[in-house]
Design a protein that fits this description.
The structure holds two protein chains of two kinds.
Chain A: H1 4-18, E1 23-26, H2 31-44, E2 48-54, H3 62-72, E3 76-81, H4 83-89, H5 96-118, E4 122-124, H6 129-135, E5 159-161, H7 169-178, H8 204-226, E6 235-249, E7 252-265, E8 273-274, H9 279-292, E9 297-302
Helix pairs in contact in A: 1-2, 1-7, 2-7, 8-9
Chain B: E1 4-8, H1 14-23, E2 30-32, H2 37-42, E3 47-50, H3 66-72, E4 77-80, H4 82-90, E5 94-110, E6 124-137, E7 142-147, E8 155-158, E9 163-166, H5 178-192
Parallel strand pairs in B: 1-2, 1-3, 3-4, 4-9
Antiparallel strand pairs in B: 5-6, 5-7, 7-8, 8-9
Classes of the chains: A alpha/beta, B alpha/beta.
């Protein structure tokens, strides 16, 4: 079995051996980067600078939650709002791989700037096994370029440290619980954020739509779980599709976009089955989305695909 | 402690195979499929897993140095997916693109429930698949151990050598008795030491 205490001890020793000066950690506020920050903070304290980048593709209220988390963890942090830069960089970009590469490169650009200003040599990332596995290389096919692997430029001015590389999410959660990290049970959220939950161009307007839809999916599912109507799925969110379909609104023809609800069961994200959430919950979600976002969305579908043949996220 | 290495054929679940073995307290390491047989002998491995991979064995008969291992080894080898298809081709069988490929959930039916690889595995169970190709001709030196509705050769073994092949993926969390199958293979390697 996995021994989180043994891992923490071995890892702390390795980190202390490697990091003799300051280091910068890419901090999204997700389980992986938070656990990584906790580990490195434990090992080298204030020499660690946590950098959170608001890409403009974060979820509702996420920026505030992350700030709060960094304070709570007593991290030496920097908070950078780069939304305009990211929206500009992703203008007219439709190819999912291109999106991921652009986002990954932009992260590194921002980190390198901070590192230069503060004289930092090391970049720490919470990269875990599925990230480098799915990003491929040599014999391994690229399923998708994870921003923290496939998105890295050929030549980086920073040295890379990734203490969680061999782990899967369930093992990271065990470490989180052992270290008392508050986000241990948080659902996974992709590094490229909402940008890859928008099929096609990830414009600010479309981001707003999927942001609201994701919030509705999260709220209704979490409410139903708290009322014991269902278990919390591994991951649950909304995807904005690149198609339109006909509808009827108040005796008038409607022609609007489609949202897909996605909810899956998994242990390590390397395989999954679609969640069989109660129909009444799907009903509530569908209803709220088509009422709240009625100007844009007039149809909701439910994704019934396992992994394989699909992946959890759509891009 | 028994030592079983995972030969990396470029699979998505190669690292999961490594994890499964680690959790069973097996000494294990992922090695590239270009590793020479001599190097493996030097490491004193007790068993090998030929992982799944992206290479299309139904179209091309090449899988790194796996042919060398199959030719020279007399220790237990478990081929998974691409490894399983390659094994059948190596011994004179054939593999082709599947008429109906299988992705995700499939029901496995055992044909040989007494086999040591399937100890404590019920006759029917859910397995997780991900294959574009499959074995179409099984060589005479091998035996079929399990099937599914759309794929006849889901599990095979050599009649005289300790070699096994699985079309499905026991290392994936969704395969119901995956951990049991790994435990059984570990036992096979231990008995053979």
């Amino acid at each position: 079995m996995f021994n989180p205490t043994a891992f923490i001890n071995e890892s702390t020793e390795n980190i202390q051996k490697t990091l003799k000066e300051k280091a910068l950690i890419a901090f999204s506020g997700g389980v992986d980067s938070t656990v990584c920050a906790a580990l490195v903070n434990k090992a080298v304290g204030k020499r660690l600078i946590a950098v959170h980048v608001d890409t403009g593709y974060m979820r509702k209220n996420e920026a505030d939650h992350v700030k709060q988390l960094m304070e709570e963890m007593n991290l030496n942090y920097r908070f950078i709002d780069a939304s305009d830069e990211y929206y500009e960089a992703l203008k007219d970009v439709v190819d999912p791989e291109k999106k991921r590469k652009i986002i990954g490169e932009k992260f590194i650009e921002i980190f390198e700037n901070v590192a230069k200003k503060e004289d930092i040599q090391y970049l720490v990332q919470g990269t875990i096994a599925p990230d480098w596995i799915e990003s491929g290389g040599e014999l391994r096919d690229t399923i998708k370029s994870h921003h923290n692997v496939g998105g890295l430029p050929e030549k980086m001015n920073l040295k890379l440290l990734e203490p969680l590389r061999d782990l899967y999410k369930d093992e990271v959660r065990e470490i989180a619980r052992a270290l008392n990290v508050s986000v241990s049970e948080k659902q996974p959220f992709p590094g490229p954020g909402l940008a890859i939950r928008i099929m096609g161009e990830a414009t600010p307007k479309r981001t707003e739509i999927v942001r609201e839809a994701c919030a509705i999916v999260e709220e209704e599912i979490e409410k139903a779980a708290s009322e014991n109507k269902m278990m919390l799925p591994w991951q649950y969110f909304a995807v904005l599709l690149p198609i339109k379909s006909v509808g009827v609104h108040g005796d008038k023809r409607a022609y609007g976009s489609v949202i897909s609800i996605r909810a899956v069961e998994s242990m390590d994200a390397m395989s999954c089955s679609f969640s069989t959430i109660p129909h009444e919950v799907i009903d509530l979600i569908s209803n709220r989305i088509t009422n709240t976002l009625g100007n844009d969305i007039n149809r909701v579908v439910y994704d019934v695909t396992n992994k394989p043949p699909g992946t959890i996220e759509w891009e | 402690m028994v030592s079983i290495y995972v030969v990396d054929n470029g699979g998505q679940w190669t690292h999961r195979e490594w994890r499964m073995l680690k959790y069973l307290d097996v000494t294990t390491k992922i090695v590239p499929n270009t590793t020479s047989w001599e190097d493996l002998v030097e490491e004193q491995v007790d068993g090998l897993i030929l992982s799944g991979g992206a290479p299309r064995i139904g179209l091309e008969n090449k899988l790194g140095n796996c042919d060398e291992y199959l030719k020279k080894a007399d220790l237990p080898i478990l081929g998974i997916c691409a490894g399983h298809q390659f094994m059948a081709r190596f011994f004179g069988g054939d593999a082709k693109p599947s008429k109906i490929p299988e992705f995700g959930k499939i029901t496995l039916t055992l044909l040989d429930e007494e086999n040591p690889l399937f100890e404590h595995v019920p006759k029917q169970s859910i397995v997780w698949e991900s294959h574009n190709d499959e074995i179409t001709v099984l060589p005479d030196s091998m035996k079929n151990l399990a099937k599914s509705e759309n794929c006849l050769y889901q599990a095979i073994m050599h009649k005289t050598k300790p070699f096994f092949g699985l079309q499905f993926h026991p290392e994936v969390n969704n395969t119901e008795y995956g951990e049991q199958i790994f435990t059984n293979f570990k036992n096979i390697c231990e008995k053979h030491q």
